[in-house]
């Protein structure tokens, strides 16, 4: 059964981006490191200074040579816990397919949440195996992307770095708390920057800011939607309303895993919104400069 496994691109993306210790459902039953031989991950290459495809193999080679040569061989008794659940650890090395010299080492823990019965062979239905990345070197980059670092205030940039540190270790409650504070501090400033931009609707956004000065932020984020640039309206949702909506969601009673997912969503929407705000101003200015040059 292991030999026939074809992991999806979705699993590749999740495993590439996953912080340490986060549980990932593979959607398959397997227990052999052979399942990952040739599996591709997109990771930063320190040589090319960009994201490249890394192909995985069992590491070190002496371990691969000592393992059973058939991917479908049974696991050893040590792979099964006392309560009958599967638990195993595999070490892998990824090699950059572009430069051929960069490597990333991964330590993965595989496990099932239900007992498994191995005595009837491999053709019977099995419980899904979950993965945790319990080690990675070099680690995923946790420094803020330049577009965020340039935009945030000094105070909020410090909070953002702390949020990323929490995300990298799957500390969901801490990450969500930091991300909420950043959004709370930056939301009105982002709208204000659009009002001060070269957008055709900038004057209308400025009027809304003035008329909603003492009003609830919820009313402002609703009112600003028709005046946002197309790049921020193409989502089909109001990004400012999405960001503001998560501020009202408390931490009480939420699991760490749920908070982690919320924090990652906040981060994604925040990065997109800030990037588009900066791109809009830059693009309009460059086009106006080009038009000026054509007229001269």
Could you explain the architecture of this structure?
The protein is α+β, with helices and mostly antiparallel strands. It has a six-stranded antiparallel beta sheet with strand order 1-6-5-4-3-2. A hairpin with a 6-residue loop joins strand 4 (85-96) and strand 5 (103-115). The chain contains ten helices and six strands. The relative contact order is 0.10. The chain has two domains: 2-137, no CATH class; 146-295, Four Helix Bundle (Hemerythrin (Met), subunit A) (Up-down Bundle). The protein is elongated and about 70 Å long. The termini are far apart. Helix 9 (239-247) packs antiparallel against helix 10.
What's the short story on this structure?
The chain is built from 10 helices and 6 strands. The protein is α+β, with helices and mostly antiparallel strands and 296 residues long. It has a 6-stranded antiparallel β-sheet with strand order 1-6-5-4-3-2.
What is the overall silhouette? elongated
List unreliable stretches of 5+ residues: none
Oligomeric status of the shown chains? Answer: single chain
What amount of the residues lies in strands?
15-25%
Helix- and strand-based class?
alpha+beta
Order of helices and strands: HEEEHEEEHHHHHHHH
Quick check: average pLDDT?
81
CATH domain fold name of the largest domain = Four Helix Bundle (Hemerythrin (Met), subunit A)
Strand order of the largest sheet: 1-6-5-4-3-2
What is the count of DSSP helices, taking H or I runs of 4+ residues? 10
Radius of gyration: 24 Å
Based on the coordinates given, report the CATH architecture of the largest domain: Up-down Bundle
| Total DSSP E strands | 6
Main β sheet profile: 6 strands, antiparallel
When the domains are counted, the total is 2
Helix content: 40-55%
Give the CATH level 1 class of the largest domain: Mainly Alpha
| Gap from first CA to last CA | 71 Å
């Amino acid at each position: 059964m292991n030999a026939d496994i074809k992991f999806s691109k979705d699993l590749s993306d999740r495993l590439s981006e996953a912080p340490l210790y986060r549980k990932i459902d593979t959607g398959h039953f397997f227990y052999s490191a052979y399942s990952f031989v040739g599996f591709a991950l997109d990771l930063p290459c320190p040589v090319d200074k960009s994201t490249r495809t890394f192909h995985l193999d069992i590491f070190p080679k002496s371990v691969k040579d000592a393992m059973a040569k058939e991917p479908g061989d049974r696991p050893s008794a040590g792979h099964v816990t006392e309560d009958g659940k599967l638990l195993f650890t595999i070490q892998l090395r990824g090699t950059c397919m572009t430069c051929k010299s960069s490597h990333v080492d991964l330590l993965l823990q595989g496990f099932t949440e239900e007992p498994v019965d191995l005595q009837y062979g491999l053709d019977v239905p099995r419980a899904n195996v979950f993965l945790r990345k319990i080690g990675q070197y070099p680690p995923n980059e946790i420094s803020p992307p330049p577009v965020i670092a340039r935009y945030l205030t000094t105070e909020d940039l410090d909070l953002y770095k702390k949020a990323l540190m929490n995300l990298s270790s799957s500390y969901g409650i801490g990450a969500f708390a930091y991300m909420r504070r950043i959004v709370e501090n930056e939301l009105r400033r982002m709208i204000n920057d659009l009002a001060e931009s070269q957008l055709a609707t900038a004057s209308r956004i400025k009027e809304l800011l003035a008329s909603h000065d003492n009003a609830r932020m919820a009313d402002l984020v609703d009112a600003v939607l028709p005046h946002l640039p197309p790049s921020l309206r193409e989502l089909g949702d109001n990004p400012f309303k999405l960001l503001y909506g998560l501020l009202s969601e408390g931490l009480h009673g939420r699991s760490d895993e749920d908070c982690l997912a919320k924090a990652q969503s906040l981060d994604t929407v925040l990065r997109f919104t800030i990037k588009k705000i900066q791109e809009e101003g830059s693009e309009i200015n460059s086009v106006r400069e080009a038009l000026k040059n054509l007229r001269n």
